Automatic annotation (TrEMBL):
InterPro entries assigned to the protein according to its UniProt record, in alphabetical order: Anti_sigma_zinc_sf
Superkingdom in the source lineage: Bacteria
Name the record gives this protein: Anti-sigma factor
Bilayer-crossing regions: 83-103
Length: 255
């Protein structure tokens, strides 16, 4: 039996129908057992259909004459026989121009910096925190292995925050794929079964240092910040003031 965990990439590939049949069946079974995640995946599907509907009228528009590949090639042929690299450049120009024509004004820029990290942490929380079977890939009993594995993937030493003073014990963690590279996710719970997630990864050029900021995405509240090129986001069901106190503890330990 395949015990590979279901990742965020698997969920998006499931929506796009690009998974191998066996893996698709595994994701389908996972969604059947996790209605909260299935609801979010259904939202992805609805967004995809809305996007397709929005783009359909533009995609059906005739291509502007200046982007017509036949006319470009014919014009070049009349002036002089092009070299092979010239033809390749014209092909790239045509494809790039067509993509820009179809997508113009239809999509907003993806979030970056601290906003992107906050969104990634919320997605990870919504996927893994409700999971009562395998919320983490490496459990707290194997913390040494977890730290070595994640540090090697992030190419820098990673510390696992100790939140015992805040009433939360470490459950374990996993490596999470994001649009900005791999991130470390640590999960904690308290005596009442409440769970919080800490997501951390190196930041790009945006928000190398950023103060603690409250964020709210997809119905979850979190706290995000960055210090010396490393970003952190804490997400959980606690009130913002309580989360901020926990975030301050994480930040103190990381400095």
């Amino acid at each position: 039996m395949n015990n590979r965990p279901i990742t965020e990439d698997d969920l998006h590939a499931y929506v796009d129908d690009v998974l191998e049949p066996e893996r698709r069946a595994e994701v389908g079974s996972y969604l059947a057992d996790h209605p909260d995640v299935a609801k979010r995946v259904a939202g992805f599907t609805d967004q995809r259909e809305l996007l397709r509907s929005a783009l359909a009228p533009i995609a059906d528009e005739p291509l502007p004459p200046e982007l017509n590949l036949s006319r470009i090639v014919e014009g070049q042929r009349r002036r002089s026989p092009p070299a092979w690299w010239t033809i390749a450049a014209m092909l790239l120009l045509s494809v790039g121009g067509l993509g820009g024509w179809v997508m113009r004004g239809s999509l907003e820029a993806a979030p970056s910096g601290l906003a992107a990290l906050a969104q990634e942490a919320t997605y990870s929380y919504n996927v893994y925190a409700p999971d009562r079977i395998r919320p983490v890939e490496v459990r707290a009993s194997d913390t040494t292995q977890l730290v070595e594995w994640i540090s090697s993937r992030l190419n820098r030493p990673v510390k696992v925050p100790d939140l015992a003073s805040s009433g939360y014990r470490l459950m374990g963690g996993r490596l999470v794929a994001t649009q900005h590279g791999p991130a470390a996710m640590f999960m904690y719970d308290d005596d009442h079964g409440s769970r919080v997630v800490v997501l951390t990864r190196p930041m790009s050029s945006a928000d190398q240092n950023a103060p603690i900021t409250t964020h709210s995405n997809a119905g979850a509240t979190g706290i995000a910040w960055a210090d010396d090129g490393i970003g952190y986001s804490l997400v959980g069901p606690a009130p913002p003031n309580s989360l901020k106190a926990i975030a301050n503890e994480v930040r103190r330990q990381a400095l």
